[in-house]
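User: Can you predict the 3D structure for this chain?
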Amino acid sequence: MNIKKIIKGLYPKPLKIKEIGVGSVVKFPRKIQGARAINIGDDVIIQSGSWLATFSKYEDQNFAPNIKIGSNIRIGRQFMLTAIDSIEIGDGCLFSEQVFISDHYHMATPQATPPHKQPLASKGPVKIGKNCFLGIRACVFSGVTLGDYCVVGANSVVTKSFPAYSIIAGAPARLVGNNNL
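Assistant: Here is the predicted structure, written as structure tokens:
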């Protein structure tokens, strides 16, 4: 057994997380909320400064959130993942730093109530297929499905779904190519 595997095995696992696989690490500093609704597969490394959160209650709203992170995944620093519904990340993905994924948003209707006091809303679950790559500061929003082997360019804002092998970029993200060799 090599020294990296020994060190990884000694790293403290997040408390109360529903399931975390063999060889998986969420590095410090980290913030984890609603851990009982988070599943992490085998051989996942989430770098420092990450925030993983599920919200079962907000103001007077109730939710049944679920986050499922597959196996053999690498995620860069300052990753943000928040759910009130469902987020699923397929096996083999690679995410750069400061990637943001959420299945919900704050309503911001013009009224006397500030946005943080308004209800949360969702356009549906987020599903990211196997072996996808998300570039630095990519954002993926509610209701989006990315097929297997998608590539998302740096600083892209993904607001709609794309099929497998798509290369997408921009704000809002659009199809710029296909990597189906």
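Residues 3-10 form the longest helix (8 residues). The CA atoms of residues 100 and 139 lie 5 Å apart.
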